[in-house]
Amino acid sequence: MDIQWFPGHMRETKELLKKAVSKVDVVMEILDARIPISSSNPLLDKICNNVLRIKVLNKNDLADPETTRLWLEYFRQQPATKAIAITGTESSGTWKAADLCLQKVNKGRARRTRMMVVGIPNTGKSTIINTLAGKKIARTGDVPAITRQQQRTGLKNGVDIYDTPGILWPVMDNQETTYRLAASGAISDTAIDYTEIACFTAEILVKHYPALLCERYKLSEPLPSEGLALVEAIGAKRGCLQKGGTLNYQKASEILIRELRAGKLGRISLETPNDTIPMETI
Ligand SMILES: Nc1nc2c(ncn2[C@@H]2O[C@H](COP(=O)(O)OP(=O)(O)OP(=O)(O)O)[C@@H](O)[C@H]2O)c(=O)[nH]1
Ligand SMILES: [Mg+2]
User: Fold this and answer.
1) Considering the domain boundaries, does residue 179 fall inside one?
2) Are 54 and 101 in contact (CB under 8 A)?
3) In a domain, 176, yes or no
4) In this structure, which residues have their CB less than 5 angstroms from ion ligand 2?
5) Pocket test for ligand 1, best of 140, 148, 162, 258 (most atoms within 8 A of CB)
6) Would you state the pLDDT for residue 38?
7) Is the distance from CB of 163 to CB of 126 less than 8 angstroms?
8) For ligand 1, what atom is nearest to the CA of residue 145?
9) Phi and psi (nearest 5°) for 20?
10) Which residues of the chain form beta strands (DSSP E)?
11) Separation of CA 60 and ligand 2 centre (Å)
12) Is residue 187 part of a domain?
């Protein structure tokens, strides 16, 4: 599946970030806790290379707690890397992340501290800003590309926080990364093939979370190991038939992906540090 989804506002954001990054004191990079490497944008790595940056694994409430623990260990072993896992709708963890960002910032300046929130689409950047502000300042939504412009919000603790539009990168040539991004909800529905993504995701679920699949879809083990066969089994349980009585694969695939994204199957991570995805290939 080739994905071409780098709309104009992402191109503009890339240019804006290049200019803005030298003027901020710290960058909060929001990753998706379910796919921390796949949601690491190599473009942002380059742009934010010389600025203090903290990795925030958001949507921790949706991720497998044991896998998140492994990810935090993994990141903490990387040179000069600080990482924390949070649920962006909850105040205490989100403030811990903000405090971690502010720890190393030089507070001796006369001006307010500037913190910029960056990341790929739909990882919860605007949600985190609303939680820190204690009110709904930024628009949020469960589809990618909600924020289209940079927005500054003054927090009570002398920090100005900048929301930025989520950006991807122009050429996605790692198939597995692309599938994981699509499964998580980072890529527009108009650019993806649900059945392909559902088949890829189904194979991860069968391997790592068979009990959750059985419980949600009233299936019994042994589950089919092939993704398409599992999508068929889910579709059959949910009555996804089209005219003539054949299975509606699109509908069955959408059910699996949407329920996974909403956490209805349970807490699931789609990659682990043991998947050994070399950083340079993403
Ligand atoms: N379960 C869960 N949902 C979250 C969390 N943080 C954000 N969300 C949801 O994720 C969706 C995307 O949140 P946004 O804050 O709009 O994401 P964003 O990164 O600003 O997205 P763009 O502006 O499109 O780049 C919304 O439906 C939020 O309610 C979290 O920690 N857990
Ligand atoms: Mg946003």
Assistant:
1) no
2) yes
3) no
4) 125-126, 146-147
5) 140
6) 97
7) yes
8) 24
9) -75, -30
10) 26-32, 53-58, 82-85, 113-119, 151-154, 159-163
11) 18
12) no
What tokens does 17 get? 């970030």
Nearest CA residue ID for atom 27, ligand 1: 142
If one counts every other C-beta atom within 10 angstroms of the C-beta of residue 176, the result is: 16
Amino acid at 32: D
Q: What angle do CA 137, 15, 140 make, to 5 degrees?
A: 25
Atom 2, ligand 1: which residue's CA is nearest? 59
- CA quadruple 39, 85, 121, 27: dihedral, nearest 10: -90
What is the 88 CA–ligand 1 centroid distance (Å)?
Answer: 8
Buried b (16+ CB within 10 A) or exposed e, 206-237: beebeebbeebbebeeebeeebbebbbbbbee
Name every residue whose Cβ is closer than 8 Å to that of residue 69 and which is 6 or more positions away in sequence.
none
Domain boundaries, position 271: 193-279
Whole-model pTM over 0.90: yes
pLDDT, tens digit, for every residue of 148-189?
999 999 999 999 999 999 999 998 889 999 999 999 999 999
Q: What CATH number is attached to the domain comprising 263?
A: 1.10.1580.10
Dihedral sign, Cα of residue 130, residue 135, residue 137, residue 142: positive
**Cα distance between residue 162 and residue 112, in whole Å:** 12
Give the atom of ligand 1 at the shortest distance from the alpha carbon of 119: 19
